[in-house]
Amino acid sequence: MDLKFSNNRSRKCRSVTRRRFYYGMFSFLVLFLIVYNYLTSEIFLHQMDPRVNVRAGRSRCCLAGNTSGSDMCGRPDCLWPCPYPALQEHKHLNVTQDKAFFHETSGATFLNFRQACVVESLAFHNPNLTVHLLMTGKHLDLNSVTMKTLRLNYPNVQITSINLGDYMVATPLERWYFCTEWNRGWYAVAHLSDALRFLTLSKYGGYYFDLDVIQLRPVTPYRNFVVAEDGDKLGSSVIHVDHQHPIIRTAVETFAADYKWYVWSHNGPDLVTRILQNWCQVYYISWMTPERCQGFRILAPKSFYPVHYHRWRDYFYKRGDKPVDKVNWDESVVGAHVWNSMSSHWLVNKNSNQYYAQMARSSCPLIFEVAPEEF
Questions:
Q1: DSSP sequence for 119-174
Q2: Tens digits of per-residue pLDDT, 254-289?
Q3: What does the alpha-carbon distance between residue 311 and residue 211 come to, in Å, rounded to a whole number?
Q4: Is the dihedral of CA 58, 173, 47, 187 positive or negative?
Q5: Phi, psi dihedral angles at 350 (to 5 degrees)
Q6: CA distances from 240 to 217, 271, 288, 319 (A)
Q7: What is the pTM of this model?
Q8: Half-sphere exposure of residue 65, counting CA atoms within 13 Å on the CB side?
Q9: For residue 111, what is the DSSP state?
Q10: Which of 369, 316, 306, 309 is nearest to 342 (CA)?
């Protein structure tokens, strides 16, 4: 009798424990969903401080040049006709010549030595390519050592200061830029960079590179491509498209229509991956052949990511003079993404055999020469 009573009591205790566990899990999930929905809501976004300054006055202008009615954001009682500047200063970014673009979106007035090394490496290995550096800083310091070295030694490097508001006018990103609060988001600076690369390529065509991709060989033999970061995701740090290619037009339109301020990669690498999956009509990156992708190419990760981001420290480890310590990648490696977002605080020693130093010594010799002993 005592044994039976003990067993019944034990079963009841286990039953109560399970109910408490399930109730606890259910309560946690409900709380998680409530918190998640709040943290990703426009209400929460509105309470955050701006990370990028946007001059919102233009958003109060009247559509179609009228002097009354709705503004570009759909609000009533607009204030003045929308100005659409001719942007004379950007006419040199024409659509006919072979060109490449870098963006500096922090507002800096000059490039640091690593950024300048990247720009030089592209100009150095591709002398017939016009290299455009578009900077959001207002008053550029063209006499800084990095900017002066590039300007005086590479006639194929063009440096341009752009006004972000003017650059967005009359584009699919105009309303996104002026009428949403993207600039308050956690990843506002990164997302602005994503937006600008797609917009620039849709305007002018050509190559786009992040400012942490050192070129090791000529890139001009490759056209209409993106690069796979790994087997699951395409990258957006290296792109080429011909002018008005449907893929880049789709990228700009999708960016504006499906923007998520709270997901870092949604508007960059993930967007590129989704577009190519649809364009090629396949899900897996390994199946994205030029035949399936209507002539568009997916370059292998090794071509620009010879060191995976999980191993970015390999670029900075001290190395000896043995052959195994030399950068000896084959010709399929065109450039090296050095993952600046993770590696910027690691120093490059000019007198070392770090991979980074080896690449800089041979691919950006003039910037390497004027750089300090550690940069």
A1: HHHHHHH-TTSEEEEEE--SS--TTSHHHHHHHHH-TTEEEEE--HHHHHTTSTTH
A2: 999 999 988 989 999 999 999 999 999 999 999 999
A3: 19
A4: negative
A5: -60, -30
A6: 16, 16, 16, 34
A7: 0.85
A8: 2
A9: -
A10: 309
